[in-house]
Each structure stands twice: as structure tokens, then as C-alpha cells.
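Hey team,

Filing this mostly as a record. A colleague (T.K.) asked me to run one chain through the structure pipeline before their review meeting, and I want the input and output archived in the tracker in case anyone asks later how it was produced. No errors, nothing strange. Just documentation.

Input sequence:
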Amino acid sequence: MAKMDEATRKRVRAGRLMLSGKTPAEAAHAVGVARQTAYTWKARLDEGGLDALRAMSPGRPAKLDGKQLDALRTALLQGAMAHDFGTELWTLKRVRVLIERLYGVRFSQVHVWRLLGAMGFSSQKPERRAIERDETAVLKWKRKTWPALKTLPPSTE
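Output structure:
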């Protein structure tokens, strides 16, 4: 027999409790789920027995399959400008627009956040520095000009 995940174990345990005469509310309390969930399981149990509870898939089916998620990862790694955005910065709104363009599926920004996290992406803030910034000039100023300014005596007028 294949190993059951935690959710399946809860469903089967609740099903056994209900078969032994417990009410759905009592079974829900025993396994730690909402009462309405147990009533849903009871309907499945009545239709197909414990096997129906074992076969239940959790949640709503995904709108994007594995191949689409792989293609989305590739698209994100190509950069935002490759997909007609003005800068290379990916935002949740931009990723949401990209998903809608590629697959015709609309997600909330919260779901896009979760989706990116599940894909292994993390939030990062861009450095607030000018593109034209000359790092060697900044370093020179920090080492020579700034210390000289700090040591100047205040002017007396």
C-alpha cells in the first residue's frame, strides 16, 4: 500500500470515525479540521467509501502546468526588457502582465508572489544608484576629498 500524506491520513481517519457512528462534527473535532470540511468528506464517503477519501485531490487544479512554469522561469530569466518592459526590473505587476500575455491567465499579485516563491525566486530591492555613477571617482572622493573637508577648521567671520 502506498504511503499517505498527512491530509489523506486525516480524511481516512475522519472517514473511519464516521463509519463507526461519529457525527461529521465529532470527526472534524477529532482530526482538527473545520466542521464543513468533514461534511464534504461525509458526502464523498457515502458515495465511494474510504477509497473515495483516499483518492481526493487537495484544492483547486493548477491553472499553469509544469511545462508552463518552466517556460515562465525561462521568460523571467530573459529579463524584463526582452518582454517589452522599459527597464530590467521585474515587479509583481509586470510578472502578472507577462503571465496574462503568455497564457491568458489572470492571477492576483498575492498569488504571483506565492508562485514566484514556489519557483525559487526571492524579492530583491534594486540599488538606488545612478546608472552613470563613476565608482572610481566616488572612491577617490571618499578617500581624499571627504577626509580633507572633515579636518578643515570652521571659518571665523
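Quick notes for T.K.: The radius of gyration is 29 Å. Residues 90 and 154 are 48 Å apart (CA to CA).
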